[in-house]
Design goal:
Radius of gyration of chain A: 19 Å
Order of helices and strands of chain A: HHHEEHHHEEHEEEHE
Strand content of chain A: 15-25%
Structural class of chain A: alpha+beta
Oligomer: homodimer
Strand order of the largest sheet of chain A: 3-8-4-5-6-7
Largest sheet of chain A: 6 strands, antiparallel
CATH superfamily of one domain in chain A: Ferrous iron transport protein A (FeoA)
Distance between the termini of chain A: 54 Å
Number of strands of chain A: 8
Largest interface: A-B, 17 and 17 residues
CATH architecture of one domain in chain A: Roll
Number of helices of chain A: 8
Shape of chain A: globular
CATH class of one domain in chain A: Mainly Beta
DNA sequence: CTATAGTTTTCGGCATGCCGAACTTCCCAG
DNA sequence: CTGGGAAGTTCGGCATGCCGAAAACTATAG
């Protein structure tokens, strides 16, 4: 059997694409997410379909099969538990864990990851607020709203930040925004492509693309 | 640059071959250690030589260059620190860590391994008694004698056991032999291919090949 | 000084996974 | 309905790393 690294990367990319948007996942979407050419993706998706991990309508979209989703979620679980370990145990900054976890997720065994989960106290979320699938493949879903779409004047809690932009993560750390931080949406300025908020006593402006990757929940009273 | 996994495996195999014997390392020795065909090894050793990591006399033996040794020792350091982590933190049995470490050694970054070393308290030896090279590439050398060559009646301390035979490691655990255990060499029976010893109050017989992979030091008085 | 047995290298071939170029297919504008 | 441009696929080619078979080399016995 083939080395599973590539397989896991593709399945995870398909799953991640679906997690952040409901648009159908085409081969070119996948290609841009994976940083590969469309022709490469086309070929490998066909192989994944042959192995029963995805379905693929020619010239259409790619969907995970049950088995494909199982593999994808297992990989996501490994990724997020490793990120949690890097921050909680090894003291990494949350901006620096993504690339390391991207490699380690393919290298750790199931035994390793279950023992690690145990030692970490079976965390339900990683340092960026991403939910960690259980070993059985369950994933809690919570209603969350991108910061870019929060109403003016609303008070919300930051629940989740995409882990793949280290510069944004570092910036958020610098302005005091973390998971669980309560922020008030001071103003939306779509014309300027900016939302303004206050975190504690600090005023912060964020561009819309960044504000789209920050998910919030209604603040606890 | 090529994916480093194969490179690291070859360099580590060359280094390991030298650690346990002074015989010259030929391509066929390497092939059998790596579980590959001699032709594959011949080809890859040539590439390593082109990259300046080894020297290779045609039809002769392979030697690490300074740079090759640096890479090999860095990989050995990762392997042994990972094994220590698996036993000390994740609670693995010492028989089960080798294969997992064999994969992880290629996946962890330098940053990861230095933070891990710090958290583990900069251990000098892994769970099998193998010395851990420092980040600078230094390795303490201690006079050790294979159990197979200890004199009858001598009292010695088990200092080191090869990590690549899980069945032997499990057996040793069962008969109460660990790193630091004091044993007495009761009898050598070369004709039978066996050495007999007592560990605590238990009598243990070991075959010569196994006894050759167990290194001992003179027992502390 | 050979003959030859054993070791090492070379050679052709295979599998994986990637790419760019050329070719299909889709689908909407007109 | 049809013409094109965009999206997707196929094709030939490349790099890595592996193998078995055949050729080349070494070293030892006679």
């Amino acid at each position: 059997m083939a080395g599973p690294t590539v397989t896991e990367d593709y399945l995870k990319a398909i799953w991640n694409a679906r997690e952040w948007s409901d648009d159908p996942v085409t081969n070119s979407v996948l290609a841009s997410r994976l940083g590969l050419s469309p022709s490469s993706v086309s070929e490998l998706v066909r192989k994944l379909a042959d192995r029963g991990l995805v379905t693929h309508a020619r010239y259409g979209s790619v969907e995970l099969t049950d088995e494909g989703r199982r593999v994808a979620l297992a990989t996501v679980r490994k990724h997020r538990l490793v990120e949690t370990f890097l921050v909680d145990y090894l003291g990494y900054d949350w901006a620096d864990v993504h690339d390391e976890a991207e490699v380690l997720e393919h290298a750790v065994s199931d035994t390793f990851i279950e023992r690690l989960a145990e030692k970490l106290g079976h965390p339900t979320h990683d340092p960026h607020g991403d939910p960690i699938p259980t070993a059985a493949g369950d994933l809690p879903t919570v209603a969350q709203v991108p910061l870019a779409q929060v109403d003016e004047g609303a008070v919300v809690t930051v629940a989740r930040v995409s882990d793949d932009d280290p510069d944004l993560l570092r910036h958020l750390r610098e302005v005091g925004i973390d998971i669980g931080t309560t922020v008030t949406l001071a103003a939306r300025r779509p014309a300027a492509g900016v939302v303004e908020l206050t975190a504690g006593d600090q005023a912060v402006a964020l561009g819309l693309p960044a504000a789209e990757t920050i998910l919030t929940e209604v603040a606890q009273p």
